[in-house]
Amino acid sequence: MAEGVNANIVIIGCGISGISAAHRLVKAGFHHVRILEATARSGGRIKTGRLGDNIVEIGANWIHGPSEENPVFCLARQYGLLDPEALTPENQAMDVGGHPPWFPNFFSSSGRKLSAEDIYPAQEMFVELLNEGSEFQGQQGEPWASVGEFIRSEVQQRAAEKWKDVDASTRSLRLCAISNMLKVECCVTGTHSMDEVGLGAFGLYKTLPGLDCTFPRGYEGLIKNIMSALPRGLVTYNQPVRCVHWSNTEKRENPVVVECEDGARIDADHVIVTVPLGYLKKHLSTMFHPPLPLHKLHSVQRLGFGTNNKIFVEFDVPWWDADCEVIYLLWEAEDGMVDQVPDIHRSWIKKLFGFTVLKPTERFGHVLCGWIAGHESEYMETLSELEVTHAVTQLIRRFTGNPAITPRRILRSQWFHDLWTCGSYSHLRRGCSQQDQDNLMEPLPPKGSQSHSLQVLFAGEATHPCYYSTVHGAVLTGWREAERLISHYSSFSPSEPIKSKL
Ligand SMILES: Cc1cc2nc3c(=O)[nH]c(=O)nc-3n(C[C@H](O)[C@H](O)[C@H](O)COP(=O)(O)OP(=O)(O)OC[C@H]3O[C@@H](n4cnc5c(N)ncnc54)[C@H](O)[C@@H]3O)c2cc1C
């Protein structure tokens, strides 16, 4: 380990994966660890903002599966950041894939409040199909290439049989509800359309037990707590990296050179790249010199990285039921099970599936969070706040049939146009397999090469094999790459224990 403590390690990106890697390395005794961050802040896609007096999450909102196996839950508990309810054994034991179905209000585009009983059979069928869709993983010969095609084809068959005695208008409404649920799933998965999400690999994503919970004082509290344990000056802010020069066979020490946008060149023995997959895709041709090996490059291109945005809307008085947790908006012409809008410029708002209600009301007042994914969401980002407010107001007035409803203020996220993120999170696109994830996380130079090993390592949410797209996935990848270096150096002096815990 003695050689290790003097190794120069540069981490690119100060999101939760970069911070987690740094923390583990520093704890293990590495003295020369630094993080280069493009922006002026830590946290990346963990970003807490304000809407009036309210704390709102622009990025990550929930701890998905808060239980013992979830490192985010354990850290949040250790730092005292959670409500007592989230800490109860009952909460941790609930295994419902996130949360039990929220209590809904349904509205239709003709301004009617719909009976939930009419819609439930469609919801039930949809959930059943998502579960079945997860079972093709690891098997050969899935019936369709994408989750979207699978769901459409199965609904068609099952509806013909199960809903044959249902009147035509209710049946049509249920198919509109399927369109709505496909849009919900686009937000969950971070994709433009469920037709782009691979069916064969859909089951790779795994959930942990525990009822999803939030950070009452904001997710960024987690970042602040971990950062406070890192040495001062470890992060250089406003320092975007332009290129990682690796495979420098002539230099045994510091074989990697990190070139920054401002021209600075930083020597390193090892670099951990934690930039989002969206950024990596966009800058593939310039980010590495020499370029990534072909198999890795193709996997970066194949893996999916889409957009999911939030539009927070505050009202003086609620127009939804007191017990309502989610509001679904069903377009009556959408009985063709569609999750894409034909004319994005004119009709982008149709992609917004509805709103979740920020609870508890005593804490948040009357605030809704609208969800919109895909290219429609990317277009929404280009509009002014006034234009978005206008579109949301018209939408709500139409669906409630109440022309007087007027939001007090709104706030929306713009993850696609964020220069350093270029979207929201990753998914396994059609045609992808576990091999693509393995290729993405494989260090450079690849195995079998003669050059100095572990020059460039890869962490970040997209590199986790089953918790991709989550904060806990990102933390685990940061630790994984830190451990890779720790074990690399511990093999020089195996007697020294280097296990560390945050
Ligand atoms: C709208 C939204 C909602 C979400 N909701 C949830 C949720 O409820 N629960 C959950 O678990 N997860 C959620 N996620 C996902 C979660 O936020 C991410 O998986 C996680 O935060 C990713 O961490 P990371 O460290 O991998 O990447 P990031 O947080 O993106 O960190 C990467 C860092 O790299 C920096 N960077 C980029 N390019 C460069 C460069 N060239 N040079 C230097 N620095 C660079 C960026 O500025 C950034 O700080 C959500 C994400 C979004 C966008």
Number of strands: 22
Distance between the termini: 19 Å
Q: How would you state the average pLDDT, rounded?
A: 94
The number of domains: 3
- Strand order across the largest sheet: 7-6-17-18-19-16-20
Query: What small molecules accompany the polymer chains?
Result: flavin-adenine dinucleotide
The helix-and-strand class reads alpha/beta
Give the helix/strand layout.
Elements: H1 2-5, E1 8-12, H2 16-27, E2 32-36, E3 48-51, E4 54-57, E5 62-63, H3 71-78, H4 84-87, H5 89-93, E6 104-108, E7 113-114, H6 116-133, H7 147-162, H8 168-189, E8 213-214, H9 220-228, E9 235-236, E10 241-245, E11 256-260, E12 265-268, E13 270-273, H10 277-282, H11 284-287, E14 288-289, H12 294-302, E15 304-306, E16 308-314, E17 326-330, H13 344-347, E18 354-357, H14 361-364, E19 367-373, H15 374-382, H16 385-400, E20 409-412, E21 425-427, H17 434-441, E22 456-458, H18 471-490
Helix pairs in contact: 2-18, 6-7, 6-8, 12-17
Residues 12-18, 36-39, 44-46, 59-62, 64, 240-241, 274-276, 279, 308, 310, 413, 415, 420-421, 424-425, 460-461, 469-471, 474 line the site of flavin-adenine dinucleotide.
